[in-house]
Amino acid sequence: MNKIKGLLLSLSLLLLALVVGIFIREQKAYSAITSEIKDSQIEDKKEAKNKENNKKETNPTEVTDTASDKFKEETFDAGEVRAITKGEKEYTGEKVVFLTFDDGPDGSSSPRILDILDSNNVPATFFLQGQYINEDTKDIFKRMYDEGHCVAAHSFGHDYGYLYPGRVGNAANIISDFNKIQERAKEYLGKDFSFKTWRYPGGHMSWQNLESADEQLKAQGVEWIDWNNMTGDAEPASRRPTTAQGMVNMVKQLTEGSSSNMQVILMHDNRSKELTIQALPEIIAYYKDLGYKFGKFK
Ligand SMILES: [Zn+2]
Fold first, then answer.
1. How far is the CA of 103 from the centre of ligand 1 (A)?
2. How confident is the model at residue 53 (pLDDT cuts 50, 70, 90)?
3. 196 CA to middle of ligand 1, Å?
4. 54: number of Cβ within 10 Å
């Protein structure tokens, strides 16, 4: 009997040893799998971190982009604003004012205007003449762009006789003139830059048969815009205010008499427009008091 008991005991011990052995092996295999998973998770994290670091390294170039993205939320499409100011499209949204300056850049006036805009933290649109964008003004031109304002095209040469012979739009000349200012701007802002907004010299309202030029500009992604308000700084002498206060008053009167929630103000930043610069801080304060948003074009 004792012999059988001893045999059974050794058999059970053997069986136990086998079971324990299998269990340990399984455990080892399991922990190998889990550690593999953990390793791959660590790898993933490393990769993610590397990606993040790479991102950080490329950031300096992104910073230049964001500099010109200032006032991004204040950007409007000129075609839409045009339809709204002409009453062709209904608009009941917040009131918006567009400060626009034609005929620059100018080495003396433009920097002073930029300083005023900067201290009031508002955007503007500069409708530039290609002939004045050159080595002497390139820093001002770049400053307009870098400080988040809209740089828009206002022809290369501002030559009425070439653009509108006999007061009739010559589409070929207008497009050729537009391409010329576009090329000039690319010299300073890079080949990827392109104008999105255009103002006809003298205003679209002043000339006939501009439909073909309008369409060809639109095909290049460019919308035109006139104005529905002004300081009067380029009006004939009989209507031109002779004081800065006179200009502020003209803007106020035109605003009060307007039924539009969008005011596009025509001003100029060429050398002879001293009164506009003097009037600008009060014009900005006036619209801030009325709760207007300050917009710019694309
Ligand atoms: Zn002009």
1. 5
2. very low
3. 17
4. 10
